[in-house]
User: Which sequence fits this backbone?
């Protein structure tokens, strides 16, 4: 495996998005999946996982990011696409019940699944594992509040190793190109 | 006495303000007005547009739409790998400083949507300017995944 990568000679350079192998720990999570059942990293083995933190109340950046991932996935052939899972983790469990996440992610396509945890500490632990965080703003008079969250998408390979970071300015073309290399 | 006073004031403001307001609104050009179709079950969406003027400076101070129980001027702010939204009180406009609402930047936050926004549909929205007053625009709903690039290259399917 290592030899093959070395022979390839491109590991570490020439990625269109940000290469983060060795920077972040492997995929590890214990959440509630959109079906209401527990979801762990073991359930995602064999899939390239694109992990994104957000919330369904977010009208701008979240659908933009998920829409971009959808556009990237559309550029892959079907066999490859079936090996990719976009995991949308809501950091707003108070408003995003699993059922709502299931409805929401279905709007982006079959490869999109939602998850969250009612335990905010568990979500905090998960985000901080990937050098990120989230916070909830003060509710207004209607009880609405805004959420600050990570703007990046974390990409894990089929063995759960962190490989890439997709930043807001990365294009669907760049993402698709890197996914083809990972798959 | 009081009433006459008010009436005089009303006539005066009608004479003074309405022609001015009309003029100021005539100078405004509002283009690329669109909103994103809501993902299923999503309670909010965002609308975008451009405003240019060849007249005096003005300020966008408010927004409303019958499709939303509440609409606000917002801005998405990205820094240090984190993203958040903030409420914006007003947005300045001048001949060399157009107003640009676009994904990941300024947006109209449409909350308490009365029904989901469906791609291809249109709805009215009122932009309120400090000088030009209320200007009604027609918003075209674009599919999920529409980007600024799509809009600029006409791939978003301009309604006009
Ligand atoms: Cu907003």
Assistant:
């Amino acid at each position: 495996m290592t030899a093959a990568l070395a022979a390839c000679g491109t590991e570490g350079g020439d990625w269109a998005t940000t290469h983060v192998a060795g920077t972040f720990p492997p995929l590890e999570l214990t959440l509630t999946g959109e079906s209401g059942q527990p979801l762990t990293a073991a359930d995602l083995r064999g899939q390239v996982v694109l992990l994104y933190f957000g919330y369904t109340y977010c009208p701008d950046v979240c659908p933009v990011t998920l829409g971009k991932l959808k556009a990237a996935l559309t550029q892959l052939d079907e066999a490859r696409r079936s090996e990719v899972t976009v995991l949308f983790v809501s950091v707003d469990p108070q408003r995003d019940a699993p059922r709502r996440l299931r409805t929401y992610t279905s709007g982006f396509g079959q490869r999109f699944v939602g998850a969250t945890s009612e335990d905010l500490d568990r979500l905090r632990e998960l985000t901080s594992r990937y050098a990120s965080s989230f916070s909830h703003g003060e509710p207004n008079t209607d009880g609405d509040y805004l959420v600050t969250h990570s703007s990046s998408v974390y990409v894990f390979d089929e063995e759960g190793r962190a490989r890439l970071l997709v930043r807001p300015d990365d294009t669907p073309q760049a993402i698709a190109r890197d996914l083809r290399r990972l798959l | 006495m009081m009433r006459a006073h008010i009436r005089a004031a009303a006539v005066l403001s009608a004479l003074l303000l309405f022609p001015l307001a009309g003029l100021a609104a005539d100078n405004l050009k509002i283009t690329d007005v669109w909103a994103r179709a809501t993902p299923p079950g999503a309670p909010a969406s965002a609308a975008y547009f451009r405003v240019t003027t060849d007249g005096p400076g003005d300020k966008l101070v408010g927004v409303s739409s019958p499709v939303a129980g509440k609409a606000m001027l917002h801005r998405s702010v990205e820094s240090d790998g984190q993203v958040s939204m903030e409420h914006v009180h007003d947005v300045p406009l001048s001949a060399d400083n157009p107003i640009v609402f676009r994904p990941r930047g300024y947006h109209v936050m449409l909350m308490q949507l009365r029904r989901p926004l469906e791609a291809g549909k249109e709805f009215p929205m009122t932009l309120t300017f400090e000088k030009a007053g209320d200007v009604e625009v027609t918003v075209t709903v674009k599919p999920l995944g529409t980007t600024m690039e799509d809009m600029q290259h006409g791939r978003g399917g301009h309604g006009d």
Observations:
- Chain B has one domain: 2-152.
